[in-house]
Amino acid sequence: MRRTLFVAASTLAIATAAAAQDQAAQEAAEALGGAIGGLIALAMVIVVGAVVGWVASLIVKGTGSGLLLNILIGIAGSFLAGWLLPALGVAMPGGVVGALAAAVVGAVILLLLIRLIRRV
């Protein structure tokens, strides 16, 4: 009887330890997955910012700024459009295309503001 209780208690302790290890491993994997997802999101923001800034610089002639400034202008233009367009009551169509169009509009506005400031 004692041996059976000892074996049952040992089995329960091993199973509990294994479950705790599995849970810790799962939490570590989720944290790593979240970190990788964050890096992918950052890479996407940089690439989309570069494309939006480049398109905006094509629309506003004579403002060739280079890759780094295109990225910064594209990202800042996206934020500007996200704040300014709804404040003006302009509704862009939903989805990825609408978000990209709004970002380009914001980047063009930003480039025009930069051009205006440089002239003054």
UniProtKB/TrEMBL annotation:
Its main location: membrane. Residues 1-20 form the signal peptide. Pfam families: Transgly_assoc. It is found in: Cell membrane. It is a multi-pass membrane protein. The chain crosses the membrane at residues 36-60, 67-85, 91-114. It comes from the Bacteria. GO terms for cellular component: plasma membrane. Keywords: Cell membrane, Membrane, Signal, Transmembrane, Transmembrane helix. InterPro entries: Transgly_assoc. Belongs to the UPF0410 family. This is Uncharacterized membrane protein YeaQ/YmgE, transglycosylase-associated protein family. The lineage of its organism: Bacteria, Pseudomonadati, Pseudomonadota, Alphaproteobacteria, Rhodobacterales.
